[in-house]
What we know:
- InterPro entries: ATPase_NBD (IPR043129), ROK (IPR000600), ROK_cs (IPR049874).
- The chain has helices at residues 41-56, 95-102, 113-124, 183-187, 189-198, 211-219, 223-247, 263-276, 296-308, and strands at 5-11, 15-21, 27-34, 64-71, 75-76, 81-82, 108-112, 133-138, 142-148, 151-152, 251-255, 286-289.
- The protein is of the alpha/beta class.
- The protein folds into two domains: 5-112 and 294-312, CATH 3.30.420.40; 126-291, CATH 3.30.420.40.
- The longest helix is centred in the last third of the chain and has 25 residues, at 223-247.
Amino acid sequence: MHTDLVAALDIGGTKIAGALVDGHGRILLRAQRATPAQEGGDTVMRAVDDVIGELTVSPLWNRARAVGIGSAGPVDASAGTVSPVNVPGWRDYPLVERVRKAAAGLPVELIGDGVAITAAEHWQGAARGHDNALCMVVSTGVGGGLVLNGQLHPGPTGNAGHIGHISVDLDGDSCPCGSRGCVERIASGPNIARRALEGGWRPGPDGDTSAAAVAEAARAGDPVAVASFERAAQALAAGIAATATLVEIDIAVIGGGVGKAGDVLFVPLREALATYATLSFVRRLTVAPALMGTDAGLVGAAAAALSRNPSATAAGV
């Protein structure tokens, strides 16, 4: 039986991934290019065109009914434009229009990468079966997205749920976004590592100063490394509790590189959450690691396309 498919694009500062995905979230075909992030906007678009081109030459392409894009942000879904912080050549870049052209006029749905990962975790991952969820990506930055009343809630521009830029420290460090004391400024991987180094932690013989190396040191009991993860956990807990208090989510899912730190992050996070999420309606809030892995962006972009083009779906998104 030839069921309809959707094309999915996952666009980040390192790679541009594409896929053809069926209504059950299965990836049937993949294509990928490195992102020429420091080049001009049209050079970056050529890499996107190459990925789409690789999909369109497949006989499966005839079954594609829509294109979903999850892009590094900020994005503006209402205008169809993207301005990814880590791709300087794209500022208010008309990505939807360009992709529609490359995809022979198929309808195109644009969401931010945090929202895409949320869509994937709700459809196939740790938030499955939850009608109200916050999903977060904690890595180089901190992004996120919301599911409310069983539906993805991207907001008018596709950025709703961007928890990384909730302020949790009124007098905290200035954040590159222009605010201060943001969750991202405390909990992102580079900031966990920066704080550990400032506190006197030193890397091993390999010289690795990443958050993953700090996590390893924390597991071995290094007090400075432990303290840096505890501070990150506290910031995440404050942001999650604020979100839950506003919109009554019952699960927060954490993915990204920092989310892989395991107990070093989740034990202090659950402890801190108990001190911030104190009202009766948020006390049952659970926190879980993401399950979808590296395909989350593609599967979530596909979910967004499917939800706007129900004729293409065989499994409710």
